[in-house]
């Protein structure tokens, strides 16, 4: 039986238990744990982009008698868990797809209900010693597309890269069940485009940044909140000749940064009262304040 990751006191925990996700049962709908423990458990699974945020929410949630058990694995994993009934609340950095909604309707006769809980500025990472400062969406497509013509740092007018072996751009990507992968492909390569098959795919958002940090000639994409001192984030321009913009709260909310996306939590049909109360708290000022603290973008104030 899988012991789920509890976010309390496990800030650095990651995804070692994800392969056993489907051994989880849905959260307790009201029974008391032995010894006067939690009366409700919320199984909260999904987006790796949202993982550290979801853990921060769980740790800070003040409601007594509610345990929020958080794990990652990717948006697709969270949504699949919602469809098969093993997840109460799915974190996703992409919208539910129509086939997924149809599967949920077929299984439970319920519609997916999604709530936007914040935004993530998808950031382009290079090694801290890389001299490149900015990039366009067209150049990113040239690097990541199967048919792209940009394969070396010289093609971008920079190099040699300090510490790199050779001139090749090593393109770091996410696995295909990741909402970040889906969004990046659609926003940069296009819905009908194909990512280059030699991308080095990583399972988690932090994994992308860590690999870029140790690979001087690599480039990768990941959430803004995963930045470390060992990497740099590039400015991004929509097209050549337009201003290149750094990701930030302000540039996401005013839509000047071109590759930002919403983050969602999903339930199968109307959530139970204790889950709705948790979602409402996420949307409240205390819950929203944790987005900026952890490198994400809160919802605009009404």
Largest sheet: 9 strands, mixed
**Structural class by secondary-structure content:** alpha/beta
Question: Residue ranges: pLDDT <50 for 5 or more in a row?
Answer: 1-36
How much beta, percentage-wise? 15-25%
Helices, by number, come to 9
- What is the straight-line distance between the termini? 44 Å
**Residues in helix, %:** 25-40%
Give the overall form: globular
Overall number of strands: 11
Q: Which assembly state applies to the chains in this document?
A: single chain
Overall pLDDT metric: 88
Helix-strand topology string: EHEHEHEEHEHEHEEEHEHH
Characterize the structure shown:
The model is unreliable at 1-36 (pLDDT under 50). The longest helix is centred in the middle third of the chain and has 11 residues, at 98-108. With 302 residues, this protein is of the alpha/beta class. Helix 5 links the parallel strand 6 (170-174) and strand 7. The protein is globular. It has helices spanning 51-60, 75-84, 98-108, 137-144, 179-189, 205-213, 249-253, 273-283, 285-293, and strands spanning 40-46, 66-71, 89-92, 112-127, 134-136, 170-174, 200-202, 218-223, 231-233, 235-237, 260-268. The protein contains nine helices and eleven strands. The strands form two sheets. Strands 1, 2, 3, 4, 6, 7, 8, 9 and 11 form a nine-stranded mixed sheet that branches. Strands 5-10 form a two-stranded parallel sheet.
């Amino acid at each position: 039986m899988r012991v789920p990751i509890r976010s309390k006191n496990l800030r650095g925990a990651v995804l070692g238990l994800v392969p056993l996700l489907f051994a989880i049962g849905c959260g307790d709908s009201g029974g008391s744990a032995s010894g006067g423990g939690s009366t409700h458990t919320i199984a909260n699974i999904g987006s790796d982009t949202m993982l550290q945020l979801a853990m921060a929410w769980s740790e800070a949630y003040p409601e007594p008698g509610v345990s929020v058990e958080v794990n990652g694995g990717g948006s697709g994993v969270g949504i699949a868990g919602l469809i098969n009934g093993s997840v109460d609340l799915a974190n996703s950095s992409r919208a539910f797809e129509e086939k997924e909604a149809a599967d949920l309707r077929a299984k439970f006769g319920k519609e997916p209900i999604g709530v936007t809980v914040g935004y993530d500025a998808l950031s382009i990472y290079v090694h801290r010693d890389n001299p490149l400062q900015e990039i366009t969406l067209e150049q990113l497509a040239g690097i990541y597309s199967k048919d792209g013509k940009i394969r070396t740092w010289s093609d971008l007018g920079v190099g040699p890269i300090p510490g790199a072996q050779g001139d090749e751009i090593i393109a770091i990507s996410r696995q295909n069940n990741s909402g970040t992968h889906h969004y990046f492909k659609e926003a940069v390569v296009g819905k009908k485009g194909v990512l280059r098959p030699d991308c080095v795919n990583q399972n988690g958002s932090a994994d992308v940044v860590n690999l870029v940090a140790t690979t001087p000639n690599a480039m990768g994409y990941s959430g803004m909140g995963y930045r470390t001192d060992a990497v740099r984030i590039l400015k991004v321009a929509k097209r050549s000749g337009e201003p290149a913009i750094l990701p930030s709260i302000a540039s996401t909310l005013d839509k000047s940064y071109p590759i930002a996306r919403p983050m969602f939590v999903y339930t199968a049909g109307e959530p139970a009262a204790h889950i709705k109360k948790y979602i409402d708290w996420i949307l409240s000022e205390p819950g929203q304040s944790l987005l900026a603290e952890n490198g994400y973008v809160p919802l605009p104030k009404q």
